[in-house]
């Protein structure tokens, strides 16, 4: 006899019994689910979609996709995923499985988002299990004390549960993992044929990703004592020049902080902290400074190669994600041992987790082994510190950067084939710059530094193996040493009280928008552009938030007074603030802030009520994400989560390589109708926001689009006038003209900015503009409160 | 006249940007472009932001583009960030539109066109970062079956219907001049 229960993630304490004998006989394979407190202590009525499956929000997705249709730019004309192939899908051709090009492109986007969501979920799983191991399942969650009552807005929204402890977070992981497996299964040959269904699943992957981000970050905030929603989180140092190379230096790279935190602990416990530099790259750097702000950040992920080759690091500790796959090779060039600490990034090293610490240290210091895989963070930390202390005097900061004479010699040998330039993502004129180095003048090479993304594809392409990236770094050596800036460490969540304070002006449009600079460092023209954009919008009294590599790039910029943006602008979530929320996983707090505006300010029900909250955000919360250097699959998943919530994302030109945009058509009025929730009438609201996923060619184009995408149907006339004035002002400043679509954003004459009245009214007259009402906007018929008769 | 030499001239300029089976035909004579423009019923010229950055001996690339547009009476859409460059030079009929927007519209058979004359049958692209042009042309190749595309940049763009090979700036300028004078 078998007894089966449906797995319910609200009641996820499961008991499985293989066989039980009793008076009535033998029972086999019994599985019992027992109700858990997390679903029952929360008085809020549960919404329609707790723990949504891959189809539960499909209708919402289709509403978005009907307005923001995919525009595909295939990165490859072929499909090579099964042995029927390769199949040529050019134009309207179909592959052997029957799939066409739109299906294939959306399938690849889904694959990318599954990789991203799986990576964050795996990260969350590892982190939460580690923290539970250290602090126990009952460790309470605390992301901001009394200032943050809604501790997990995404989780509450998506899952319909209110987590209280680390153990509750672990329970949620099961749901995320199940959904990712379902999504990945949908990419198998013969599973989906409609590109729109693939796209709906892309959104689902993004939503799952956001839950993973959130539970990972609130776990580490709660257990590791990171700043708790603190607008005045401390300032710390960032830049290649801030590292004290007279000390032993440990470099941590990656995203998963336990090994880096354990290094800090070990140093503290043994009275060694002041004697060893702990520096980091990418999100582990963010998080180790959240753990201890005396740690230092070298820079975004593109600083990896240049810092390793500088020879400053004595030991390199890698965890996971976005770490160069030649780290071990590069580390060997500078005679620095590498300690790998993650089972998803073992880098070919022997597993020494079970070995005695001093034996591992001996092997690393002697150079008999280039590195070690140590899966116990505490042991990895002890090995890292002991090795750094012993190896630093031996290494003498041995670097792999060339001398000027080597650059000149390289210039003499250069074949001028241009293969370096043809391999460079940013088409940098390396050949020409090298030619100018013939006489010892390295200025042209140094000028490439700011735009170099540090990929070293130029070196791989060079037929005579010139270390071209190193030549650029050598040329810019003085600049590198002067890289000394301040960054406010990641503050984590946004306080509920901040949301109450800005909720009204955001929803009414009087704070013109929330602009989030997020993502990686694959910039078309250097990180300075991100800083410039952030400062521009902070000065305009938008709320600027930042995370990940973008948050670092914002810091690496100084104003006339020598201040970095984090020194010049407050860290408060309010108009004119620049808010560093933290690492990649802290992106959850940006989405969370938008959700909390709907929940705390507007008092919309949150629990398992995804569609209504997303509809609220799309129509009322003027938020835009900017991922100017997005390159990874994780970034794709993060963006997808924002799309489903109705938050548009702008990427830089390299973002076109994600091969699909989600574009509105402002020239199609029929696409821009909403229901007026007061009457049920359909009302034209203009293209607000015009796009959901958009790539800009230049920073100027991005800035104008940011201002435009902050407009929402619900803006009050005063709010719309403020938003329009920024849009028009930026358009005139950067493009030299009035926007040709301004009439589409004017609903009544009260929307027109006073100072621009004559110009705008002239356009309205030319375009035959007609006044329209401002509805209580929704795309969901079920939210209509009263139907008009007939 | 384009100087044709090694096979490298017909490889994608960014070496890893290998396309699929359908690749651009070579513009090895500027008269090909003249013929395509003359034969087209409704051409369009699409200009990327680099047109305001590239210096040629006779001015910026944008100056050449204006001469080309005037000689063939082409409707022109440019990246918004350089539309001011056209206006400053007295070319008032420029339309600023993000490249993803114009490309998206070109895949819509029902779009009335930039000039309300219906679907465009020829799109000439110039002034783009290589990878931006590569991807936009890919979108048009796959999803605008009735549109011929011509890349007028100095690098081989395999997703165009027609493209220059990889050529030097001097050769490029010579060819642009030949096209402009041929139209005049």
Q: Main traits of this protein?
A:
heterodimer; A: 790 residues; alpha/beta; Helicase, Ruva Protein, domain 3; Rossmann fold; 8-stranded mixed sheet; 6-stranded parallel sheet; 23 strands; disordered N terminus; B: 184 residues; 7-stranded parallel sheet; two-stranded antiparallel sheet; 6 helices
Give the oligomer, counting copies of the same chain as homo and different chains as hetero.
heterodimer
The string of secondary-structure elements of chain B, in order, is EHEEEHEHEHEHEEH
CATH architecture of the domain at 240-479 in chain A: 3-Layer(aba) Sandwich
CATH superfamily of chain B: TPP-binding domain
What proportion strand of chain B?
Answer: 5-15%
Compute the separation of the termini of chain B in Å.
Answer: 17 Å
User: For the report, how would you describe the main beta sheet of chain A?
Assistant: 8 strands, mixed
Structural class of chain A: alpha/beta
| Number of separate strands of chain B | 9
Question: What is the overall silhouette of chain A?
Answer: globular
Average pLDDT across residues of chain A? 94
> Any idea what the radius of gyration of chain A is?
27 Å
Kindly provide the name of the CATH class of chain B.
Answer: Alpha Beta
- The helix fraction of chain A, in percent, is 40-55%
- Cα Rg of chain B: 15 Å
Strand content of chain A: 5-15%
User: For the largest beta sheet of chain A, what order do the strands appear in spatially?
Assistant: 3-19-22-18-17-14-15-16
Nearest-integer average pLDDT of chain B: 94
Sheet with most strands: strand arrangement of chain B: 1-9-8-7-2-5-6
What is the CATH class of the domain at 240-479 in chain A?
Alpha Beta
């Amino acid at each position: 006899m078998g007894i089966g229960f449906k797995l319910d993630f609200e009641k996820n304490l499961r008991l499985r019994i293989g066989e039980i004998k009793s008076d009535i006989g033998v029972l086999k394979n019994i599985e019992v689910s027992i109700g858990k407190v997390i679903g029952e202590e929360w008085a809020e009525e549960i919404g329609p979609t707790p723990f949504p499956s891959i189809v539960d929000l499909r209708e919402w997705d289709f509403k978005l996709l009907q307005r923001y249709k995919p525009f595909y730019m295939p990165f490859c004309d072929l499909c090579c995923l099964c042995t029927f192939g390769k199949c040529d899908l050019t134009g309207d051709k179909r592959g052997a499985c029957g799939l066409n090009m739109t299906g294939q492109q959306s399938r690849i986007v889904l694959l990318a988002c599954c990789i991203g969501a799986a990576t964050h979920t795996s990260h969350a799983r590892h982190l939460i299990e580690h923290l539970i191991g250290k602090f126990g399942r009952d460790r309470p969650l605390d992301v901001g004390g009394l200032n943050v009552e809604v501790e997990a807005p995404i989780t509450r929204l998506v899952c319909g549960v209110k987590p209280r402890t680390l153990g509750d977070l672990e329970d949620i992981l099961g749901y995320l993992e199940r959904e990712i497996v379902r999504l990945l299964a949908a990419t198998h040959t013969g599973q989906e044929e409609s590109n729109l269904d693939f796209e709906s699943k892309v959104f689902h992957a993004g939503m799952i990703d956001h839950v993973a981000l959130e539970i990972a970050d609130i776990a580490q905030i709660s257990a590791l004592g990171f700043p708790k929603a603190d607008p005045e989180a401390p300032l710390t140092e960032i830049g290649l020049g801030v590292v004290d190379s007279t000390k032993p230096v440990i470099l941590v790279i990656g995203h998963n902080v336990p090994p880096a935190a354990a290094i800090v602990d070990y140093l503290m416990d043994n009275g060694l902290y002041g004697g060893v530099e702990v520096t980091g790259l990418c999100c582990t750097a963010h998080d180790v400074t959240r753990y201890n702000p005396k740690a230092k950040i070298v820079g975004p992920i593109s600083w990896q190669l240049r810092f390793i080759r500088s020879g400053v690091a004595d030991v390199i500790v890698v965890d996971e994600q976005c770490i160069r796959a030649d780290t071990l090779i590069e580390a060997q060039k500078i005679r620095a041992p590498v300690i790998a600490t993650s089972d998803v990034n073992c880098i070919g090293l022997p597993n020494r987790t079970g070995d005695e610490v001093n034996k591992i240290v001996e092997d690393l210091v002697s150079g008999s082994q280039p590195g070690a895989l140590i899966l116990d963070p505490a042991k990895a930390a002890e090995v890292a510190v002991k090795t750094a202390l012993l190896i630093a005097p031996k290494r003498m900061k041995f670097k792999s950067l060339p001398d000027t004479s080597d650059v000149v010699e390289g210039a003499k040998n250069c074949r001028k084939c241009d293969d370096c330039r043809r391999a460079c993502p940013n088409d940098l004129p390396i050949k020409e710059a090298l030619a100018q180095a013939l006489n010892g003048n390295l200025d042209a090479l140094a000028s490439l530094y700011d735009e170099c993304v540090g990929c070293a594809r130029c070196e791989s392409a060079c037929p005579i193996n010139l270390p071209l990236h190193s030549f650029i770094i050598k040329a810019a050596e003085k600049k590198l040493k002067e890289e000394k800036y301040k960054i406010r460490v990641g503050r984590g969540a946004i306080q509920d009280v901040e949301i109450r304070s800005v909720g009204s002006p955001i929803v009414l449009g009087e704070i013109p928008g929330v602009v989030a600079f997020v993502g990686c460092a694959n910039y078309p023209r250097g990180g300075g552009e991100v800083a410039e954009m952030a400062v521009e919008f902070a000065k305009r009294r938008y709320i600027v938030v930042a995370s990940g590599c973008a948050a670092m790039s914002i810091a690496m910029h100084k104003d006339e007074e020598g201040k970095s943006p984090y020194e010049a602008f407050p860290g408060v979530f309010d108009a004119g603030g620049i808010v560093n929320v933290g690492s990649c996983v802290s992106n959850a707090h940006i989405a969370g802030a938008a959700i909390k505006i709907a929940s705390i300010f507007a008092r919309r029900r949150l629990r398992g009520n995804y569609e209504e909250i997303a509809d609220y955000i799309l129509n009322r919360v003027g938020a835009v994400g900017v991922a100017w250097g997005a390159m990874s699959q994780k970034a794709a998943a993060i963006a997808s989560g924002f799309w489903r919530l109705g938050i548009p994302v702008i990427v830089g030109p390299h973002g076109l390589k994600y091969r699909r945009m989600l574009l509105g058509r402002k020239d199609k009025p029929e696409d821009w109708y909403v229901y007026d929730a007061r009457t049920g009438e359909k009302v034209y609201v203009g293209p607000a926001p015009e796009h959901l996923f958009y790539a800009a060619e230049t920073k100027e184009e991005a800035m104008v689009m940011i201002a435009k995408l902050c407009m929402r149907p619900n803006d009050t006339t005063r709010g719309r006038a403020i938003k329009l004035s920024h849009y028009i002002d930026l358009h005139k400043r950067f493009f030299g003209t009035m926007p040709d679509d301004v009439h589409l954003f004017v609903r009544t004459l009260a929307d027109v900015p006073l100072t621009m009245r004559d110009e705008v009214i002239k356009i309205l007259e030319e375009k035959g503009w007609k006044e329209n009402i401002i509805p209580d906007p929704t795309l969901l018929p079920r939210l209509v409160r009263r139907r008009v008769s007939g | 006249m384009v100087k044709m030499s090694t096979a490298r001239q017909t490889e994608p300029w960014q070496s890893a940007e290998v396309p699929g089976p359908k690749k651009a035909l070579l513009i090895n004579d500027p008269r090909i472009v003249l013929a395509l423009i003359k034969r087209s019923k409704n051409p369009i010229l699409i200009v990327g932001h680099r047109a305001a950055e590239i210096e040629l001996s006779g001015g910026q690339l944008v100056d050449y583009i204006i001469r080309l547009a005037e000689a063939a009476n082409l409707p022109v859409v440019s990246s918004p960030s350089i539309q001011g460059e056209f206006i400053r030079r007295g070319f008032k009929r420029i339309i600023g539109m993000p490249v993803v927007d114009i490309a998206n519209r070109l895949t819509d058979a029902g779009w009335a066109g930039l000039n309300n004359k219906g679907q465009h049958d020829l799109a000439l692209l110039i002034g783009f970062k290589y990878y931006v042009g590569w991807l936009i042309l890919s979108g048009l190749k796959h999803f605008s079956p009735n549109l011929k595309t011509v890349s007028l940049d100095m690098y081989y763009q395999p997703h165009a219907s027609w493209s220059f090979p990889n050529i030097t700036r001097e050769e490029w300028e010579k060819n642009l001049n030949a096209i402009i004078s041929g139209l005049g």
